[in-house]
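Q: Hi! Curious about what CYTH domain-containing protein looks like structurally. Here's the sequence.
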Amino acid sequence: MKNVEIKAKVDNIDHVEEKAKKLSDTPLVVIDQHDIFFHVPSNQAACGGRLKLRQFKDGTGELIYYERPDVTGPKTSTYSMVKLDEERRRNLRVVLTQSNGVLGTIEKTRNLYMVGQTRIHIDRVLGLGNFLELEVVLNDGDDPKIGEEIAKNLMKDLGISENSLLSGAYMDMVLRN
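A: Let's find out. The predicted structure is below.
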């Protein structure tokens, strides 16, 4: 699966949220997430590879492996994801902790809005601050350039400037601090 993503630091989160709400095709969905990042082999890490186990409030989760270049601006991300019930998530956490080791954790509240094929995430990340992520979901055969154009247009609509764009993942920010 592929998408085109951007991540930006947000100073006035209420302003961005209001704009996202007006653009959205769907009602707001609030998602509390606890992400555990695991070490990956150095050859995977070198190409932007990350492995995380995401836990939701109800105990269920998702195992997600993704590769994304660490650059600002729209970038193509490829990923694989498996949805997990609570027992499988718990057991997988034990196995991955023993086999790979934990790199770190991220806790956030994510407000999700949909605009066409784009997921707008307004994230309040514990210890890091407020952020916006755009994920333009690509269908098989879609040219990533279309996703980049969609992301750039939504950035304008949401009032996100290029100088607020970030590279990397929240985990990278935590590790740098």
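A: A fun detail: Residues 37 and 52 are 4 Å apart (CA to CA).
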